[in-house]
Amino acid sequence: MKEAGKALLEKKEPRYQAVLFDLDGTLTCSHPGILQSVKLSLEEMGIPIPSGEVLRKFIGPPLAYSYTHFCGMSMEEAEEGIRRYRAHYNRDGIFNCTVYQGIIPLLEALQEAGVKLGVATAKPGSMAMRVLEHFGLLKFMDTVSPNQEDEKGTGKAHLILKALKDLGVSPENAVMIGDTRFDCQGALEAGTAFIGAAYGYGGIPELKEAGAQLLAASPQELGDLLWK
User: Fold this and answer.
1) pTM (2 d.p.)
2) Domain range 31-93, CATH class
3) 92, pLDDT greater than 90
């Protein structure tokens, strides 16, 4: 284990039996590949590209939600947008991202401490597993709870509860870490604690408005909040 991970283990007991992470904006800085694929899909369909601020909102919720809510598409148009997005993302965008600095040492320390780890993500399983494996994150995870392949979404609470069922951990002994209001609202509905990844894409105002009480400005700060 690297020195950063050893330093985390010098702390006291971990606060939670299970720690669940969102993927985009929490484990990985993934906006370059995602936003480029969204732009290309909209250009091909002749739909105006929203501002950069609006585009960033695509990171987090299911794509069907983003296309209909942020671009005014019908569900039929959103399905076509998803098809075009996937073609670009799977070819060029999926690995156009990086793991946030400090995440690997954090995962190493949590795993060494016996904490059960998982991912609960709006990304469909096929994409999520490719990203996790490519960047060496999958080996840390005891479970992965992804979105449906059609990307219409069943809600973050559902994904969180499924992950906890797989892990055999009750909600009151777990924490969800994510960067958007969808992560926070899902955690509240599922009955888990929540830590906002303020370094991600949702931003501090969005997280606080959703009810987040604990915020981490960096993966390193997450470590401070995960040990007693």
Assistant:
1) 0.85
2) mainly alpha
3) no
